[in-house]
Write a structure and sequence with these properties.
The chain is an alpha/beta fold. Among the domains are: 139 residues, no CATH class; 279 residues, no CATH class. It contains 19 helices and 10 strands. The strands form 3 sheets. Strands 4-3-5-2-6-7 form a 6-stranded mixed beta sheet, sandwiched between helices. Strand 9 and strand 10 form a beta hairpin. The longest helix is centred in the first third of the chain and has 41 residues. The relative contact order is 0.12.
Length: 657
């Protein structure tokens, strides 16, 4: 029995060491952003991340080798004593000469068990706090309507391409922040680590007011703080939540990655673009290959393909695959080939040298700053700038827009220690050779806003200037950050959402139909006095809703000012006499044809005051015989085949707990 107890203590001792290192690694080394990130990485698989896993394991033994040796030696000696004691008992000879010595021995074992178990429990609690497990569990049990109220389906708005389509080169720099510039330029460092990128921002636009010296940047919202989540945010304007059970699994090549999402790649492909995704690692990691191939049929140019095309030697592998120096050289060669084709292209390239921990110092890096990570950031700045200057010298640049952005905040622990807890970090985000930024204000935005912004940077016109949860920064429409504030938006994004799970993730179109069948009356449809009263009501309702949605650790100390964010109040049905969507005069712009051969998908007349191209939702008097024209079964899932016999009762608003 005592051997078994000792063995269990030894196992818990190892688990305590692992837990202690895990807490240190997650909090100090990589500064994990959310428990969602951990869940996604564990469930999506670790293929392509062997280098990081190996680094973590080697770091554990480097940090705890002495403790492990001492603990193992004590355990071995303990087992030896137990075996000798058993042998002595069988021979009838007492192993311990005195009873007091025997008591001390057994009490020591019990004391060791208590100490090791307590230390293990302490480490588990710290891990719980660091990962925010409690906050995650609290928020997944709270329902949010942010998608119901703010998510714009790309196929529900008009998107018009210019006659001459522009190419897109999107350079996604691993963990690149505008924070890396100097304090003088609005950064968090004494020295400017990114002078080249700072200069490029001022040549193009970082969506700052004219004459602003400080470098602007993008906020990284909840569930967008790791690479694949950042890529999805920038090209689809949705965070990568993992609340949907069908999504929590290891990815194979055949697994569907958010199949009902309409991304930038999907739209560009539909309009004749050829899409490419290049990275210096295995694109299979975290489902990136699935995402890009299934949304825009991207040609994948990754570590495997680089060896096939002799861009790197067979079997070559450093860091995550191969360093950025070779990546940019390969990118120049591929762009030279792609640009000769008679078709517009979308070329996305993802770097890796600035990945945590400490980055990868290639032979181009100089020893000019205090830490290795700072030297790698400065080296990446020079390489990206040189790559952009090469592009600008090419014939195809005149018809090409360049977007440069960081995928998320850096997870290297040195960054937060340098910038300080009070500094507002931002991901780098600029546009070169795009439209002129004409707004006289500095935008507050997040990576979700890059989707419609990049589209409009290509000269594409978007009805309403919004896609997904994003807002084009070229427009005068407020972003969700500007409406709700960063804390308010994050509080909604981390909560559960039926719309996200049923529509965006699973493709259940029920929520889309409900959303479009019960539109909120437009402000211009209301009488002036009624509109004024409604604005007052909505202003109060806005602040109460946002504060109620904020988890305990987000609670504001003062009420937030109303910034235009007006959540829909489904409990208050629209007055049928104020902006009714269905005109009673059949000649007054009704969308439902009486000719059964006319179909049901007639384009909506914007002047008719209706947003729903289907049958009236007014109640049918059972005492009056009414003929309902036959309806051709629709192909659009948002149009129901038959009108309801009675009006659907309004859905009650879910009040966050």
């Amino acid at each position: 029995m005592w051997i078994l107890i000792g063995t269990l203590i030894y196992i818990v001792f190892w688990l305590t060491c692992i837990a202690a290192y895990g807490v240190h690694y997650l909090s100090d080394t990589i500064q994990i952003t959310s428990f969602t990130q951990v869940i996604y990485t564990l469930t999506a698989g670790t293929e392509g991340a062997e280098g990081t896993i190996g680094s973590a394991i080697s770091g554990f033994f480097q940090s705890y080798w002495l403790v492990l040796i001492i603990g193992t030696a004590i355990f071995a000696y303990y087992i030896y004593l137990c075996i000798q004691n058993q042998k002595a008992k069988k021979a009838g000879i007492p192993f311990f000469k005195e009873t007091k010595t025997q008591r001390v021995f057994y009490c020591s074992v019990v004391g060791a068990a208590v100490i090791v178990t307590s230390l293990f429990g302490t480490q588990l609690y710290q891990g719980w706090q660091v990962l925010g497990v409690g906050d995650y569990l609290e928020n997944v049990n709270r329902e949010s309507t942010i998608y119901d109220e703010n998510f714009i389906e790309p196929d529900s708005v008009n998107i018009k391409f210019p006659q001459k389509k522009k190419n897109l080169i999107h350079i996604v720099i691993e963990s690149m922040e505008s924070s890396y510039t100097s304090h003088e330029n609005g950064g968090g460092y004494d020295n400017d680590l990114i002078p080249g990128l700072y200069q490029l921002a001022k040549e193009g636009t970082d969506f700052s007011a004219p004459g602003t010296k400080e470098l602007n940047g993008a906020i990284v919202t909840a569930n967008s703080g790791w690479t694949v989540a950042g890529l999805v945010a920038m090209s689809a304007a949705v965070p990568l939540n993992v609340g949907n059970g069908d999504f929590n699994r290891n990815f194979s090549d055949k697994d569907k990655f958010m199949p009902h999402l309409i991304t930038m790649g999907d739209i560009l492909e539909d309009h004749g673009y050829s899409n490419y995704f290049m990275c210096g690692s295995d694109a299979s990691f975290a489902g990136r290959r699935n995402y890009y191939q299934q949304h825009g049929d991207y040609e994948i140019l990754d570590h495997r393909q680089a060896m096939k095309e002799k861009a790197i030697p067979e079997g070559y592998s450093v860091w995550w695959g191969f360093e950025d120096k070779k990546l940019f050289s390969w990118a120049e060669k591929k762009l030279g080939q792609i640009s000769k084709k008679n078709e517009p292209f979308n070329f996305t390239v993802l770097t890796a040298d600035t990945h945590f921990p400490e980055g990868y110092p290639c032979d181009l890096c100089k020893d000019e700053f205090d830490s290795q990570y700072e030297n790698v950031v400065a080296c990446t700045d020079r390489q990206v700038t040189e790559f952009v200057r090469w592009i600008q010298k090419q014939d195809f640049y005149e018809d090409t827009t360049i977007v440069i952005s960081g995928d998320h905040y850096s997870m290297d622990g040195s960054v937060a220690k340098t910038t300080g807890a009070d500094y507002d970090r931002r991901a780098y985000a600029i546009v070169l050779n795009g439209p002129e930024y004409t707004l006289n204000k500095t935008r507050e935005f997040c990576t979700l806003d890059l989707y419609p912004t990049i589209m409009e940077a290509l000269g594409i016109q978007i009805e309403g200037h919004r896609l997904g949860l994003g807002t084009s920064l070229y427009s005068n429409v407020d972003t969700l950050i500007e409406k709700m504030g960063e804390l308010g938006l994050n509080a909604e994004l981390v909560a559960d959402s039926s719309y996200y799970n049923k529509v965006i993730m699973s493709g259940d179109q029920t929520e889309v139909t409900d959303k479009k069948e019960d539109p909120k009356p437009k402000p211009e449809d209301k009488e002036p006095e009624e509109q004024k009263e409604q604005e007052v009501y909505e202003q109060v309702q806005t602040n109460q809703n946002i504060q109620a949605a904020v988890p305990p650790y987000y609670q504001p100390t003062v009420p937030w000012p109303d910034q235009g964010y007006v959540p829909v109040n489904p409990e208050t049905p629209a007055d049928p006499n104020a902006g009714s969507e269905v005109p009673t005069d059949p000649n007054a712009g009704t969308e439902v044809p009486t000719d059964p051969n006319a179909g049901t998908e007639t384009p909506i007349d914007p002047g008719a005051g209706s947003e729903v191209p289907n049958l009236p939702e007014t109640p049918i008097d059972p005492g009056v015989n009414q003929e309902v024209p036959p309806v051709t079964p629709p192909t659009d899932q948002t149009v129901p085949q038959t009108p309801p016999a009675t009006p659907e009762p309004p859905q009650g608003e879910v009040v966050p707990e």
